[in-house]
């Protein structure tokens, strides 16, 4: 197993990062390491009004969601009903997992991308030309639930947390479907989301002595339909909006949600998956908790027929089985929307 960033930072006093972690400068990204202070208000969706408000409040919330998906590909969900204590307990248990000995984690190290539980460092250390300042734990939690044996209590808390977040996604997908002019249950039925894949991902970003030279994660889009993210109090998520990188600062007790590649495919490009990245800092460890939510592994994802008009709106993507797309993206280097580009017509 490749040396984890956590072990690297704890084994000795680092004054500079090893060369393999130095990210080459991208000419298109001139503000890398010296970000502008850009004050922009990320859209906020009130989950309670979306699901339990009056008809007028629900209609307004769906319209707000449509604008957020159309113009941002990103939004913050508040009043979602998941206890803050449960979120914090899940974050702390993930930190405890990273604190386990190498022997305790060895059964999950560097497994195949479709293995139920795997942990590692960077994105895919076997093929990454440059390493990223990140360790991870990835667990398939639906339709079949998996969890590591340690730390104690992880399984029970993860099960409750993933069940609660999956319910949020279910309701968001209904609203997204309506916002696209489709039947409320179109996404659920066409992509078999009742047996859809949910992956719990914990990301650890230890302090970095030269954060201006490294990245926790490179610019990329996510596979799947919608991704939910929460984190400890340390920021680091940046999203690309109108060709500028902006800090996505979380509201207290909220989830940050971004559109995935398969929502872009299904919507025939109306709702685009968003490029985002993770930056690191010199002083504090950031931990983020992600749930990636996708179709059934065997579902073929293609543009919704109602959103395709051969003259004005021709299909923009080939259909592909979700399983094949997932293996393709996770087995190669992570670079922008390069995997989505492979299914463009």
TrEMBL record:
Belongs to the iron/ascorbate-dependent oxidoreductase family. Pfam families: 2OG-FeII_Oxy, DIOX_N. It comes from the Eukaryota. Keywords: Iron, Metal-binding, Oxidoreductase. One of its GO terms (molecular function) is oxidoreductase activity. The keyword Signal does not apply. This is Fe2OG dioxygenase domain-containing protein. Residues 195-295 form the Fe2OG dioxygenase domain.
